[in-house]
Amino acid sequence: MSEESDDDMPELVAADVSKVPVTVITGFLGAGKTTLLNYILTEQHGKKIAVILNEFGEGDSIEKSMSVGEEGELFEEWLELRNGCLCCSVKDNGVKAIENLMQKKGKFDYILLETTGLADPGPIASIFWLDEELCSDVYLDGIVVMVDAKFCERHIDEKKEDGSVNECQKQIALGDVIILNKTDLVSAEQLSKLKDLIRSVNNFAKIVETSHSNINPESILDINAYGLSGDTKMEDIFTQRGYSTEDKHIIDQSVGTITVQIPGSISKCALDDFLQTLLWEKTIKNSTGNIIEILRLKGSMCIEGSDRRLVVQAVEELYDSHTTTVWEDDQPRSSTVVFIGEHCHRILGSLKKFDMFKLAAVRVV
Ligand SMILES: Nc1nc2c(ncn2[C@@H]2O[C@H](COP(=O)(O)OP(=O)(O)OP(=O)(O)O)[C@@H](O)[C@H]2O)c(=O)[nH]1
């Protein structure tokens, strides 16, 4: 481990100590989310965990928020979800659930939020990630996606009538950890094929195989996927995996992962210009003429005039950046960007039109 003085420590490390981490647990219907929650709540992990469940039934739609106290006591609150659509109405209700929960601050030190099987985790995650008011109390630690090893292949292939990305692909794309559950129901061969399929969508997430959601809580809690961790991990992608072609990980999915490395340093203005065109204007097309729709983006950037890395995180159209670790003298300067989204293959030609990709010998994994 490198020895850092207090002055070298990134600002966020200190700021996060008083905040409560939130892990969003999502996954298709019946994949094993509740089994996972029950498992974690009974495991020894030294944490006092509060749980928020988002559920909506056929008729009345309700969001049940419950919290498990230190002594195992349970207190509950019920919040209306007006139209039963989690994605549209979760913003206000989700904030309220957390605010109510935070009044019990001190009784818990971790929040798990289980979404319904059909939810898009993007809007839910952004509440905890970038909501100004809540962010003083909580922060998004990561998104955990439960995948049903038996039925995932069918769900991932489902075509939506409007041609949009199906929920299963969206969830996998946004996962920081993907739990491949129900491994007892498939053969080793099926499992290996499914892993390739998942990797074809999200090649950056950690995949953990489980049966009956039995998982070491350390694999999913305190991973800090939206914080400072991961900057050097991104750089390692190139040293560990070496070179491969742009399309290697895109099997037959519209959603895929592409990692791009830009040697040298880039200007912050050029980075913002690119991100805003990509995420807000959504006008960048790949070489097949399809608009690139980002679901998740992570970048570890080398910025001109700065001696520290800049980590960029994006979920759909939202993005944020933080200065992190110092570049050591002997570390080659480069930026690494992981794109996960729709039509992310064959994008190099389009990227070259932007200043930050222009000069460098850009590489793609
Ligand atoms: N064989 C097998 N069954 C499992 C496994 N994990 C969970 N189950 C069973 O699968 C069913 C669904 O599990 P849940 O934990 O309720 O799944 P969920 O994702 O919370 O389901 P929804 O809330 O309906 O989306 C239950 O009957 C579980 O006992 C597993 O690894 N193997």
TrEMBL record:
InterPro entries: CobW-likC_sf (IPR036627), CobW-like_C (IPR011629), CobW/HypB/UreG_nucleotide-bd (IPR003495), P-loop_NTPase (IPR027417), Zinc-reg_GTPase_activator (IPR051316). It catalyses: GTP + H2O = GDP + phosphate + H(+). CDD domains: CobW-like. Gene3D superfamilies: CobW-like, C-terminal domain (3.30.1220.10), P-loop containing nucleotide triphosphate hydrolases (3.40.50.300). Residues 21-208 form the CobW/HypB/UreG nucleotide-binding domain. GO terms for molecular function: GTP binding; hydrolase activity. Keywords: Chaperone, GTP-binding, Hydrolase, Nucleotide-binding, Zinc. GO terms for cellular component: cytoplasm. Residues 257-344 form the CobW C-terminal domain. Belongs to the SIMIBI class G3E GTPase family. ZNG1 subfamily. PANTHER family: COBW-RELATED, ZINC-REGULATED GTPASE METALLOPROTEIN ACTIVATOR 1A-RELATED. This is COBW domain containing. It comes from Elysia marginata.
